[in-house]
């Protein structure tokens, strides 16, 4: 998920929030019932964001899918501690969650790691329910496999302070978190970001990875468990510009859409920074895009970037995608709430679902466009995805969205400009 892995020990306000939550819940409740297991539905107390504010607060939630609270096993997720890969499968110990039950029957985690894992389970259950509502849950297999406290060795040393998705093994990996921010397992935006990568894997990468081996390396993260791996396979721009160009563009698309997914789930426009303060503002979504990137501009950027900086360039492209799509979603919410005289929050809830469905439906379509571009040895325009996404929205493209496209993206493709903007474009 994050690009930088620098280790810093800086005081960070969310640590105090999190530490405060963990200790306050231990002191506030009476440990009236201590139970070794529980079966859903269970009431649990976890820090979670209030809708659309992005702020975390302790809330009592009902978990419907947990069959064993002690090992956190349920329909939504399965956890593996000190994990490894054996014969292609994730193996590891089951967690042993420390908890108690307060006089209201709510289960409370007794230590920080138990609270983090319980919160992570709650996120996966909420994501599962969100996916069911969107009608996309059957694309993935459940329970989702989650490695916790994993030792990931990409070279020398082990990764810290990172969350990863391994498309090869279809597992989420949380390596030890040692900063003083919001732990990554609690950060709903981060969890939803990684969760989106699984959809990109299933709908874009997997169907073509054998035929087009270069797309297999499109995962933005190093993911081998317990294995020293070489750096990511980055095509050399001087030897094969189209391959290097598409590698940057598609990695960027995967990252940018994952950030949109993280924002839509958590309501937090700068969720990466809550856990990784060194990310500064490079990942925030609430800045307008004045001018999107054309294929010529991107080709020049790729040519002018050293191979080892191309992952950084792809994150920058990803941030452009994320901000442009967020701007289009905000625009749609504004316009519909004005037209229908409805509250923005209510309209946002509807538009969010429409946007999420359109994003998922666009993945196989952009894959076809990528294959066509590869066959013709041409460069896929960065704006193609934006155009496809807009055509997949349920409602018609609005006048304001069309104007926004003209202003920020510039030239639209011949084949879609009338569909998007009518004959006046
Ligand atoms: Zn990512």
Describe what this molecule looks like in 3D.
With 425 residues, the chain is an alpha+beta fold. The protein has one domain. The chain has 12 helices and 11 strands. It has helices at 13-28, 112-134, 188-205, 213-216, 241-266, 271-275, 295-303, 310-340, 344-375, 383-392, 399-408, 414-421; strands at 42-49, 56-63, 66-68, 73-74, 77-86, 89-93, 99-101, 107-109, 144-148, 163-166, 171-174. The chain has a 5-stranded mixed sheet with strand order 6-5-9-11-10. Helix 3 packs parallel to helix 9 (344-375) and helix 8 packs antiparallel against helix 11.
Task: Kindly list the characteristics that best describe this protein.
5-stranded mixed beta sheet; alpha+beta; 425 residues; 11 strands; binds zinc ion; 12 helices; 13% strand; globular
Strand residue content: 5-15%
Envelope shape: globular
Kindly state the percentage of residues in helix: 40-55%
Described by strand count, sense and barrel closure, the largest sheet is: 5 strands, mixed
In DSSP terms (H or I, runs of 4 or more residues), the helix count works out at: 12
H and E string: HEEEEEEEEHEEEHHHHHHHHHH
Cα-based radius of gyration, to the nearest Å? 22 Å
Strand order of the largest sheet: 6-5-9-11-10
Low-confidence residue ranges? 4-34, 222-232
Structural class, by secondary structure, is alpha+beta
Bound molecules: zinc ion
Task: Tell me the count of domains.
Answer: 1
How far is it from the N-terminal to the C-terminal residue, by CA?
A: 38 Å
Q: How would you state the average pLDDT, rounded?
A: 83
Number of strands: 11
């Amino acid at each position: 998920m994050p690009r930088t892995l620098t280790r810093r020990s800086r005081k960070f306000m969310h640590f105090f929030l999190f530490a405060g939550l963990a200790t306050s819940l231990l002191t506030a409740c009476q440990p009236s019932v201590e139970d070794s297991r529980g079966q859903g539905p269970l009431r649990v107390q976890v820090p979670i964001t209030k809708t659309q504010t992005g702020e975390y607060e302790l809330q009592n939630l009902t978990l419907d899918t947990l069959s064993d609270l002690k090992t956190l096993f349920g329909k939504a997720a399965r956890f593996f501690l000190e994990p490894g890969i054996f014969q292609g499968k994730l193996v590891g110990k089951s967690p042993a969650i420390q908890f108690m039950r307060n006089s209201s029957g709510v289960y409370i985690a007794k230590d920080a790691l138990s609270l983090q894992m319980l919160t992570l389970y709650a996120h996966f259950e909420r994501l599962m329910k969100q996916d069911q509502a969107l009608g996309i849950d059957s694309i993935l297999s459940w329970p989702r496999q989650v490695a916790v406290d994993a030792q990931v060795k990409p070279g020398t040393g082990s990764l810290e302070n990172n969350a990863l998705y391994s498309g090869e093994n279809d597992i989420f990996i949380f390596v030890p978190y040692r900063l003083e921010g919001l732990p990554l397992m609690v950060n709903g935006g981060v969890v939803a970001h990684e969760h989106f990568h699984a959809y990109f894997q299933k709908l874009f990468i997997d169907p073509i990875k054998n035929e087009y081996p270069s797309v297999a390396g499109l995962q933005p993260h190093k993911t081998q468990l317990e294995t020293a791996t070489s750096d990511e396979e980055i095509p050399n721009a001087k030897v094969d510009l189209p391959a290097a160009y598409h590698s940057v563009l598609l990695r960027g698309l995967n990252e940018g859409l994952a950030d949109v997914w993280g924002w839509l789930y958590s309501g937090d426009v700068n969720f990466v920074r809550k856990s990784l303060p060194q990310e500064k503002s490079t990942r925030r979504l609430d800045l307008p895009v004045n001018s999107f990137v054309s294929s010529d501009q991107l080709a020049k950027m790729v040519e002018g970037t050293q191979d080892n900086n191309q992952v950084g360039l792809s994150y920058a492209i990803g941030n452009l995608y994320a901000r442009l799509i967020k701007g289009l979603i905000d625009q749609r919410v504004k316009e519909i709430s004005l037209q229908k005289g409805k509250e923005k929050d209510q309209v946002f809830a509807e538009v969010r679902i429409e946007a999420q469905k359109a994003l998922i439906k666009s993945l196989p379509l952009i894959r076809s466009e990528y294959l066509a571009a590869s066959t013709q040895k041409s460069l896929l325009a960065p704006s193609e995805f934006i155009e496809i996404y807009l055509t997949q929205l349920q409602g018609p493209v609005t006048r304001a969205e069309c104007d926004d496209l003209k202003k920020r993206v510039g030239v639209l493709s011949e084949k879609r400009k009338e569909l998007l903007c009518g004959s006046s474009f």
